[in-house]
Specification:
342 residues, alpha/beta, Rossmann fold, six-stranded parallel β-sheet, four-stranded parallel β-sheet, 11 helices, binds beta-D-galactopyranose, binds calcium ion
């Protein structure tokens, strides 16, 4: 009788444990990773190259045995379009989003949609402001530090000027320069411009800023702006600092169109190390550029996407402030440019 009683108690306990176990829902780990990539504008040269790296990265992860599908959408410069595309990507069952915001100051609609559906977001290349990043715990950012690229550009320009007495062509002891700037409000535009000039000054170079033009990262717009600057300051410009390679190439297009002789050219500096930018360093048209590590960024986004969906591997990632992954820039000159050609 006694043993029967014990048996009944043990049985009850087992049932209890079983029911409790069922009631405590285990988080489901989806077998398949469905990634939605939303881009601000794929006609942007660097961005286009970054997105192809990202696709390759997801293919590699797939070859390593993880089942992944990737859907890419291009907002062609409209935040409205991007909000709709994100809604569509979530409706198509994406379980992680990689978002390259059109307007980095306006991510609220996308964050709300993602939070309602519990889909983590990895923002990339266009950094949301810190308050927006705090809106939800499943928001991340992968990119690079604008300040570092500006400082490196300033250092390379200072070296080039120090090494070449001809750089100060009118020999007034100052460097007359112009800046071609990216989109207003973009973290990489304002900060690159300021930190490049500050670094040059801190290296003892006297600067004389003749002017600047906003060309929104775009080669054709930069050519236009440069032609305007050249009509205002013919033969006076000794240095061109561009916030990216596409714009430095546009500036060179302007000089070529106006048939400037080689001796009358300023020294040109870009940022990104796009295919065309690296070619221009090899050809000696651009003095130097700064490599914006698209392969490293794509790798970080890929690994983070897998970790965010599966819940494993987060501790392997090099976060700053728990949410940010920044890849370092690198200086590219004619000495090392070939290392960057893949
Ligand atoms: C920058 C890059 C630019 C442009 C921009 C787009 O990091 O240097 O060339 O692609 O991102 O957001
Ligand atoms: Ca001068």
């Amino acid at each position: 009788m006694k043993s029967k009683g014990y048996f009944a108690v043990i049985l009850c306990c087992m049932f209890f444990l079983l029911f409790c176990g069922c009631g405590r829902k285990q988080p489901e780990v989806p077998e398949k990773i469905q990634v939605g990539v939303a881009c601000y504008n794929q006609s942007d040269i660097f961005l286009g190259e970054l997105v192809s790296c990202l696709k390759q990265q997801f293919e590699q992860l797939e070859n390593s045995g993880i089942e992944i599908t990737v859907l890419v959408r291009d907002a062609a410069g409209s935040q409205r379009t991007q909000d709709d595309q994100v809604r569509e990507l979530i409706d198509m069952n994406c379980n992680v989003l990689c978002v390259n915001l059109v307007d980095r100051a306006d991510p609220s609609e996308i964050i709300d949609l993602a939070r309602e559906n519990d889909v983590p977001i990895i923002f990339f290349n266009r950094e949301p402001v810190a308050e927006d990043m705090m809106q939800w715990e499943k928001l991340y950012y992968v990119g690079a530090k604008a300040q570092q690229s500006g400082e490196m550009q300033g250092e390379l320009a200072a070296d080039a000027i120090a090494e070449n007495a001809q750089a100060d062509r009118n020999r007034d002891g100052k460097i007359q320069y112009v800046v071609l700037e990216g989109e207003p409000g973009h973290q990489d535009a304002i900060i690159r411009t300021e930190s490049a000039a500050d670094t040059l000054k801190s290296k003892g170079i006297s600067l004389d800023k003749l002017g600047s033009g906003i060309a929104n990262w775009d080669r054709a717009q930069a050519q236009n702006r440069m032609q305007q600057l050249l009509s205002q300051y013919p033969n006076q410009i000794e240095l061109v600092l561009a916030n990216n390679d596409a714009m430095v190439l546009g500036a060179i297009d302007a000089y070529e169109k106006l048939n400037y002789s080689e001796a009358a050219l300023p020294v040109f500096f870009g940022i990104d190390g796009t295919e065309a930018g690296l070619e221009a360093v090899i050809d000696g048209k651009v003095e130097a550029t700064i490599y914006n590590d698209k392969e490293g960024q794509a790798r970080a986004i890929g690994n983070l996407a897998v970790a965010a969906v599966t819940g494993t591997g987060m501790d392997q990632l090099a976060f700053e402030n728990e949410k940010y992954i920044y890849l370092p820039y690198q200086k590219v000159t004619e000495e090392n440019v070939r290392e960057f050609l893949y």
